[in-house]
From TrEMBL:
PANTHER family: GUANIDINIUM EXPORTER, SMR FAMILY PROTON-DEPENDENT DRUG EFFLUX TRANSPORTER SUGE. It holds the Pfam family Multi_Drug_Res. One of its GO terms (molecular function) is transmembrane transporter activity. Belongs to the drug/metabolite transporter (DMT) superfamily. Small multidrug resistance (SMR) (TC 2.A.7.1) family. Gdx/SugE subfamily. This is Guanidinium exporter. Keywords: Cell membrane, Membrane, Transmembrane, Transmembrane helix, Transport. Its main location: membrane. The chain crosses the membrane at residues 33-50, 57-78, 84-103. It is a multi-pass membrane protein. It is found in: Cell membrane. One of its GO terms (biological process) is xenobiotic detoxification by transmembrane export across the plasma membrane. The keyword Transmembrane helix applies. One of its GO terms (cellular component) is plasma membrane.
Length: 104
């Protein structure tokens, strides 16, 4: 169950990372509320996952999911460049996440 908590914690991390872009410096109320709520849920789920998972593994996977998802949504939603090098680096992060899962 801890891995499920960790996966959803990572998804909510993506939500708050992308949400920060839409808060316009925390000047827009609705995006700000949703972003802060996403932060709280993400950290809460990470805390639940840490009950049984090693902190180094859980933190690395949590940030990895957030990094990959945020980078991909940046490409898709925000028009950031999708160069071969960038996509290759994202793939390396995914390999690292999978390796940590297999090693745990």
């Amino acid at each position: 169950m801890s891995w499920v908590f960790l996966f959803f914690a990572g998804l909510f991390e993506i939500g708050w990372a992308i949400g920060l872009k839409y808060t316009d410096g925390f000047s827009k109320p609705l995006p700000t509320i949703l972003t802060v709520a996403s932060m709280i849920v993400s950290l809460g789920l990470l805390g639940l996952a840490l009950k049984t998972l090693p902190v180094g593994t859980a933190y690395a996977v949590w940030t990895g999911i957030g990094t990959v998802g945020t980078a991909l949504l940046g490409i898709w939603l925000l028009g950031e460049p999708a160069t071969a090098v960038r996509l290759g680096c994202i793939a390396l992060i995914v390999c690292g996440i999978m390796g940590l899962k297999l090693a745990a």
